[in-house]
Amino acid sequence: MASSTTESSRILHEIETLKSAKSDLERRISALESQLHGLNHPHNNGVCIASSTSPSAFPHGLSPDMIYRYSRHLLLPSFGVQGQLRLSKSSILVVGAGGLGSPALLYLAASGVGRLGIVDHDVVELNNMHRQIIHTEAYIGRSKVESAAATCRLINSTVEIVEHKEALRTSNALEIFSKYDIIVDATDNAPSRYMISDCCVVLGKPLVSGAALGLEGQLTVYNYNGGPCYRCLFPTPPPTTACQRCADSGVLGVVPGIIGCLQALEAIKVSSAVGEPLSGRMLLFDALAARIRIVKIRGRSLQCEVCGENSKFKAAQFQEFDYEKFTQSPLSTSPLRLKLLEPNSRISTKEYGDRLRNGESHVLVDVRPEHHFKIVALPNSLNIPLASLDGRLEEVVSALKEEEHKQSSESSGADVQLYVVCRRGNDSQRAVKYLQEKGFPSAKDIIGGLEGWAHEVDPTFPSY
Amino acid sequence: MKGEEDGFGFADRSGGEKVEQLVQIKALFFARARDLTGINDVLLEVPSGSTTKDCLDKIVANFPRLEEILGCVVLALNEDYTTESTIVKDKDELAIIPPISGG
Description:
The complex is a heterodimer.
Chain A: H1 2-40, H2 64-69, H3 71-74, H4 80-88, E1 91-95, H5 101-111, E2 115-119, H6 144-155, E3 160-164, H7 170-177, E4 182-185, H8 190-203, E5 207-213, E6 216-222, H9 230-233, H10 246-249, H11 254-272, E7 281-286, E8 291-296, H12 315-320, H13 323-327, E9 346-347, H14 349-357, E10 362-366, H15 370-373, E11 381-383, H16 393-410, E12 417-421, H17 427-437, E13 444-446, H18 449-456
Parallel strand pairs in A: 1-2, 1-4, 2-3, 4-5, 9-13, 10-11, 10-12, 12-13
Antiparallel strand pairs in A: 5-6, 6-7, 7-8
Helix pairs in contact in A: 1-6, 5-6, 5-11, 7-8
Chain B: E1 22-29, H1 31-37, E2 41-47, H2 52-62, E3 74-77, E4 80-81, E5 93-97
Parallel strand pairs in B: 1-5
Antiparallel strand pairs in B: 1-2, 3-4, 3-5
């Protein structure tokens, strides 16, 4: 029995090692392929004019390989040789290699954009995989940009892929954006959206903006041909309570997939000058109702702080602008860590673990929404979601009484403690504050919530 | 989630002897507006000649939690751009669209 366990762990280890070596090799091969391609066509920005195997270039400049690869594009009367040539001479930057960026990048690489840039500072995680379809399991724990670039190169080695493995900030945005014709916003937070839109206005770049959350998606092309920018529509940032993240609210994987595909489509239309881009209009996708609406939105606002008539917002102002302060939310995706309580109203997960082991008499209230509680919960916890706490205080009272009753029969003496837990330790603090005001002065919050519990006490406790 | 029939008329109409003509409009909620109201749409009646602003005021009176997002929404009347002073007509659809940030 013991030897078979050792044997299987040895095999697992070897599989892991081989997998990682394999993906390293694949990455190196695709990097070398694109390097070789660059050497063969040094003066054309990575765009193929004539393949090295074919001396005879055609007057339009597409090589035989390109004609074959993109034949279905070339067969479209409204796209044709001209559309493909324009696309192959254009450069597109995708900010964010997540749920929106994954399909956008896959299609942009496949369709033969000349140069494709990817910005992201994150690493691939297991809970990304259901929607961030450009990444494979072998890349878990590694850079999203490296992973996305490797996949793009495997799909189309003739496209020049540029890796920007850094967080987009006012300090680097102008320099990065200035190297591209079109910007695709595939980020996941409000400050980034304002920063990207402002940077596009300053540099005069069209912006293909997509967003998805839950079962809904939105899509618009901003700053295109005299059309509005993001700030024309939303001069005042949304309240922080309205800025929801997929990590909190959830998202059905295919929803950002659809919006990301539409972003690729709009970027292709803009770069090939084909069709009517979605400027001055906003597409609203409702997955549950299977409905897409397109609403007309306002034109450019003359009073817009950034793109308006008398705007003084230029590169210098952009670099000075504090987007986190403006939107009151962080640029990075790291979750909020509130500090609402005095230290004596809080205990660490380790301490709670100790008290649990010592059999301390207590009631544990879990204030997460019911559908979270159903995913995973600590044993013997009482689920009263924060939103319904004020109407359910009776349940806290009776749970404490029940515990007191149990305790008096064992006659151990001490008071019954009241602890509150949530997912990350923010709502539990709000709940403790409320409980203390409502006559439960000794209520305590478990610092860091269930995520902290999984990190510090029980590594087998599932994270979500 | 489904639409909710509107049961509220204007209670504060002054005078009373003159019966005002009412128009019925449908408010459509998107993204955060859906979370805050718990519904996708609602029918409401407003006196004829009312503006989109009047409609919004009435909607907020019935769904006070919407107040928090009204500073940052796109409004569309019958899928077209609208301002707060546009007069609504019977059967109009007023969409309240807060931005989504996720991705």
